[in-house]
Amino acid sequence: MLDESYIQIAIELAKKGKGKVSPKPLVGALLVKNDKIISAAYRSSPEEDSAEIIALNCAKENPEGAVLYTNLEPCCFAGKEKDCAEILIGSKLKKIVIGSPNPHPQLGGTTIKKLRKAGVEIKTGVFEKECNELNKFYFKHVTQSFPYVTVVMASTLDGKIADKDGNSKWITSVESRSFVHELRTEYDAVLVGYNTVKMDNPHLTVRLVEGRNPKRIILDRELELSARDNLVKRNYDKNLAVLTSKSNKTKKKKVDKLAEAGVEIIYVNEEKNGRLDLSHALKKIGERNITSLLVEGGRRIFTEFLNNKLEDELIVFLGPKLLGNGIQLSDGMQIKNLRKAVKFGIKDLDKIGEDACLKLVRR
Ligand SMILES: NC(=O)c1ccc[n+]([C@@H]2O[C@H](COP(=O)([O-])OP(=O)(O)OC[C@H]3O[C@@H](n4cnc5c(N)ncnc54)[C@H](OP(=O)(O)O)[C@@H]3O)[C@@H](O)[C@H]2O)c1
Questions:
Q1: What pLDDT, in 10s, does the model give residues 42-59?
Q2: Is the CB of 313 under 6 A from ligand 1?
Q3: Is the pTM for the entire model greater than 0.90?
Q4: Is 52 a catalytic residue?
Q5: If you take atom 17 of ligand 1, which residue's CA is the nearest one?
Q6: Is the CB–ligand 1 distance for residue 199 below 6 Å?
Q7: For 146-362, CATH number?
Q8: Domain layout of the chain by residue ranges
Q9: 172, 199, 233, 306: which is deepest, by most CB within 10 A?
Q10: Does the CB atom of residue 200 touch ligand 1 within 6 A?
Q11: CATH fourth-level superfamily of 3-140
């Protein structure tokens, strides 16, 4: 089999760790000897050894002379006992084939250099684009300390995200909503504005699919979140946080009540116009080792994230409906004419249930 085919298997193995390994990267590894796979492994939790080490430990045969395939450059930090590069050198592998280099600032190709210096043959860049896409959360977080941000919205054909009474249930089909739940299982956290909590009283869990719930984060300048909201009432896993203005530190009674309900309160700087500084909010989120954030609305949140170019990706579910009037998805953008329009490229286009699903990146 070709190197490409084995790296593809490593990618599929790595995907099994989605939603489970953060803040560590997704890694799959294979050991191949005489055209036979003698070991296959992936990382399934952040505490676990990296996939290459598991593959070496689980090999059915002596790995000496085998080829190791992995989607990501192994780390060479001092691990639990020994650094991975030293273990790989000691295993006397014939060759190592790597998908993408590890962009960690303290790593930057050091493992590859170390292995080459020790005489191990190294091939890099096999399916690099796919391998980079696989670890986009980890890459953004280790290089910028911010989470990877995906803004996801449901819109009618005429750009409405809710009717004129603020009701958005349901613009899209159950299949699209299940897809969003699937995304929630993969992202470390979801974020909505407090008006959405007031209007929709959401749970922000993954009821429609199997998997773990993400952390729920509410942007709430005035600290209005209360024990009446479903999110607080059902905060069983104590994984709810609220981003609020530093000026609310004085609302002692409210702060204590939320803390009692297991809500983490994260204080954020205000901008001159009184709005919460979203870059500071993202910095605070990144500091908590949250590598990926799904921004789910509503209108002001969508507008502010897009206006400030804070999204890495935009996913729009288009329900084949017209509302005529209602809440516009990007209200308040001051764009003079078509030439100045915010432009996106289509990364992917799918039909999900009754709806169109567009994955977009800024051009
Ligand atoms: N179709 C969809 O995909 C979808 C998804 C979610 C929600 N919705 C709909 O959207 C509507 C709610 O939207 P909305 O615009 O009223 O409210 P929103 O975007 O849900 O929430 C805005 C909240 O965030 C706070 N905030 C603090 N700093 C901010 C900043 N820098 N930028 C923006 N907001 C900041 C605002 O506080 P201050 O006002 O005090 O600054 C306000 O409490 C509902 O009708 C809901 O059903 C639709």
A1: 999 999 888 999 999 999
A2: no
A3: yes
A4: yes
A5: 195
A6: yes
A7: 3.40.430.10
A8: 3-140, 146-362
A9: 172
A10: yes
A11: Cytidine Deaminase, domain 2 (3.40.140.10)
